[in-house]
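Minutes, project check-in
Item: structure for the 463-residue chain
Input as provided by the requester:
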Amino acid sequence: MTGLTFAWSALGGDPALLPRVSTVVREGALHGRLPVRELARACVGACALAAAELAARRSGTTDMPRVRVDDGAVATAFVSERHLLVDGRAPQTFAPLSRFWRTSDGWVRTHANYPHHRAHLLTALGVPADVDAVAAALAERSSAEVEEAVYAAGGLAVALRTAREWAAHEQAVAVAARPLVERERLDAAHARVLAPITGTPPLPAAGLRVLDLTRVIAGPVATRTLALLGADVLRVDAPRLPELPDQHTDTGFGKRSTKLDLAADRRTFEELLAAADVVVTGYRPGALDRFGLSPEALAERRPGVVVAQLSAWGAYGPWRGRRGFDSLVQVATGIAALEGSPERPGALPAQALDHGTGYLLAAAVLRALTEQSYEGGSRCVRLSLARTAEWLVHGVGAGDAGGAVDVRTEDGLAYDDPGPWLAESDSALGRLRYARSPVSFAGGPTDWARPPAPWGTDPARWV
């Protein structure tokens, strides 16, 4: 089974649509020991196919647009944060204390990009914000001790494991027992009536309203993709938790951004929910339930809603409540060991768990909307970075082109310059260079309708 076939099946898609996908294979794109290029093209291909399917449904045609997945576009988009320039300035992707460290018996990786996570890390270690001091403190402790002590203090550190060691872990067992894409019908709400789309280009998500309660990369990539496809996406952040500016810029294309205290301003949130079609969350499982944001509670107040949930470690198992990031999931699941050497752990050529899961999450939302138009019912879809990692390590075949292979010689077969898949735009944040979306189908959109806005500067209301 190819990667695209597996992903499309996990989304509940009709296998008869798979021949609509073709792939431009480019050597050198996302090169790694693991088949990350194959995973990336499968995730993007499934998302583009779901978009084309919904576009055909809303256009009232049985002639579904063809999908073309170009390794160059995919590879460029999967490192979009590295291609971003703001007035010529390149962002810093990892803070000085976000890195691999030697311990007394191996390695750990920490994540301290956010100020509060850095503070918790330093508190756990009892040292100042100095690289040498952190290195000395970690060198005296075992990897397991560091992992648990930093977690207990509210920080993020994960011990390096091999794939075999992770497979024996209770959390890995819980993750492997779940499907790549969890799909659930929550009630018997009436079938969704989708207005026909007649504009050019056809935007399959036109007129749909998406509440974006996500952070970092994976969730914002999903909602950025829905914005590309025409949705009115409103990102909602707590005033006390500002997003990293460059990260927000990279994933903010096509969206609006507002600040809202869910505890203090419930009325405003309920007004937004009353007109929302999709709610996307990217916090730890259960973390938002106290605000009435569980899938069941949302469907009760807004019948017919699609709820999309994303987490690092999954909604089950002993680590379900832990925070996590792509780099840390790579370390725990054996990816860093597989991509590294006996002397030092390594990493994938991109934060592919984040980006790949993001495109799959967008695909799951699009497929849920299509299914609703036939069958009704509020829907919940759920993905995790750890489950995507399980698929990468154990399920995606190297050399899988993910569809019919189209290798037009005039396009060339090498990936040595991202230029064709980059664009520039003026914005309130400055002159931006950015990666275009790799999600492409015949006649579909090629760029976002608006550049990103400064964090939290839009009103908390629908357009």
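Outcome recorded: Residues 407-411 have pLDDT under 50 and may be disordered.
No further action items on this chain.
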